[in-house]
Amino acid sequence: MTTPEIDPITLAVLAGRMEQIADEMDATLFRAAFNPIIAEAHDASHGLYHAETGDTLVQGKSGLPIFVGVMAFAVKAVIDKAARDGDLAEGDVYIFNDAHIGGTHLSDMRLVRPFFRDGKLVCYLASVGHWHDVGGAVPGNYNPAATEVFQEAFVLPPVKLVRAGVLQQDIVDILLRNTRLPASAQGDLNGQLSALDLGAKRLDALLNDYGTDTVQAALTALTDRAETLMRAEIEALPDGRWEAEDFLDNDGIDPEALPIRVALEVMGDRLTLDFTGTAGAVKGPVNIALSTAIATAYVAIKHIFPNLPANAGVMHPITVTVPEGSLLAAEFPRPTGGYTETILRMIDVIFSAAAQAAPERVVANAYGTINALSIAGTRANGARWVMFSFYGGGHGGSLESNGLNHGNAPISTATIPPAEILEAAYPVMFRQWALRPDSAGAGAQRGGLGAVYEIELLEEEAEAFLFGERGRFAPQGVAGGGAAALNVFAHETDAGWQTPALASKAVGMKLRRGQRVRLETPGGGGYGPAAARAPERVARDVALGYLSPEVATETYGPAWQELPV
Length: 565
Hints:
- This protein is α+β, with helices and mostly antiparallel strands.
- Helices cover 31% and strands 23% of the residues.
């Protein structure tokens, strides 16, 4: 059957309708989820995926960008599984969290549902959300000391959670037995199933309005359009090759720094990202799967070219070369729980390379770590509790403006859970939640400020676990901008405050009632030379408390002192 032609107006209308379906799926899960990482921080995503390849067709605007590319691999894993088993049916829903075949880490639970119309497979709907706890050695699953995935969480390969419309209770029982927080897991699971139900209902309505052939023609056209737009964007860049390098503090096991290198090459309407020279796979959990590395390249590209759609066609003119055996192409059972730290460094080096080719298109390095902090214990009534959250920092300066103060990581459209929500849910009190002075990288456009968080335990005892980065290698500026402050973590003990031996990673830190943990997060790198910053702007930063007078004078010179503050 010949694919029907589709006019631009109909294509735009259908694109909006399909994006709205994904957005509604996002909103459904955010409202229904039990754990704050989904409900408040929006660490989840939904989309529509190609029936044969699994490629991303449409993704909701509220979901995490990193899931755009990763979920295509997840859907492809289900397609392969269904082909082997030969039993794909209407009403099926697959579930799994295996990071090596679906990207990211084991906390991200993926549900994939085939969508049929008149007995014909049209596309797949998929939902991914960060569950609060999925077993493993560390509550919350960010275990910086893990040397294999089994120490990070319970590993589930693709299995049918729903078979032809019938929920498989034995799968649910297995899931709930492998978490410290079964009520939270049950609520999140129900929310994801509800999101998929809503997506199927909305797709049915769309097909009723326009017909299957027209909608499928639109899906094909959207991919073709994304590729055409990407080629035009690349062709506008100068031809050439540019290189950049940055480092991870360590792998959580050994103290050695780990290089991540990229060479960005532009030739006509094609772009290559070559990560040759990156460190090999390591013992600790900063490894990532190849699918995650490719998805990260997409996220960086999307930042550099922000007007591109969330569609797999964007990657068609781009080649991503990842060395076999590197920490960017780890194989099972290498641990991958700290994937966030590694992909943030990948984005940093891509930005740094791109800044040499087209500095007007990029921002300086953001703070570069989610600072995954878990505090866990048992309440007086015997109930387990696990407070897991991530924390913000400064974004990099750009040609047009200073960096954002206290933002979330650039892999994400998630939000940092509010202090009030965390205090209401867990026995903790935030003694400080503030901007961190002198943490921004200097520049004509300075970076954004990092933050200071100080958290006090209100229960008798608990343990804390930190998985962070940027404790030894600061976020870098571009176009002559300066580096930001390092990440600093400390926890209170009977002998006073202590800092981790590995700077940004620690496990099993004992806390007693009244003791605190303290995070001082990095700012963003600066853009352009500090000497080009207007003195009145420096004076304003001093007046706002963003800069101390001493650092302002040391960094920008004394001219600001002659102005009223």
